Amino acid sequence: MASYKIHVQQKVKVLHSIAAALRTAVTVTLRHEKRKPPIEVTVLLTDDDQLKTLNKEYRGIDKPTDVLSFEAGDTMPGMVDDDPYLGDIVISVPTAERQAKQGGHSLKSELQLLTVHGTLHLLGFDHEEPEEKDRMWWTQASILAQLGAEITGPPEDAED
Questions:
Q1: Residue 53: how many CB atoms within 10 A of its CB?
Q2: In the chain, which end has fewer C-beta atoms inside a 10 angstrom radius, N or C?
Q3: What are 72-91's pLDDT values in tens digits?
Q4: Is 69 helix (H, G, I), strand (E, B) or coil?
C-alpha cells in the first residue's frame, strides 16, 4: 500500500517528539488537501546562516527567514520506487525559537506552523494577494486546529 514518506533532516537537533510532530504536520496537510500517496517530502531543520544564504540566492533577500519551500515537481533521482517527490521545506530552528518565545508558545507549535505553511507552499498556495492570503491562512488555521497546535497562524503583524 502506498504511503507518504516524510523525511526530517536535522542540521539543528530537536526532540524526537518534535520531529515526529512535524512528520504528522506534513501528513495531515497532505490529507487535508486530498493529496493521495505516494508523496515524498523532506523537512530540513537548520540554522539562520543557511536560511540567509538560500533566501539571498533564491529570493534576492539578504537576511534569514523562518521557512522556505522548494518544489521538486519531479521524482527524486535514484529512488528505486520513484515516488512523486513534492519538494523540500527548510526551516530555521533559531528563528522558530525566537518567534515562539515572542509569541508565548512552544517551539513545537511554531515548527508545526512553519511546516504546515511550507507544505501548503509546496501544494501551490501563496499569500502575495489578499484573496490568496485569506485562503492560505484559513487552510493553515484549519490544519493546525486539527493537529491540536497551540497556535493556528502567524501574528497579525508578521512579515510575509
A1: 13
A2: N
A3: 865 444 444 555 899 999 99
A4: strand
